[in-house]
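Late entry, written up from scratch paper. The run itself happened at the end of the previous shift, but nothing got recorded in the book at the time, so transcribing now.
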Amino acid sequence: LLYQIITTQYMYLYLYLYLYLYLYLYLHLYLHLYLYLYLLFVCINIILIDLLTN
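Output as recorded:
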């Protein structure tokens, strides 16, 4: 019985770790994507301003 309880606890622990890792990677990718889009937007704005001023 004790062995069963320990194994189930480990299963839950692994499940939590897996979910945490998945969420972390997902958010990480999204943050990078938004960062790159923001930088691209800023670069485009700088180029447009430069073209408009000349």
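The two ends are 80 Å apart (CA to CA).
(Scratch paper discarded after transcription.)
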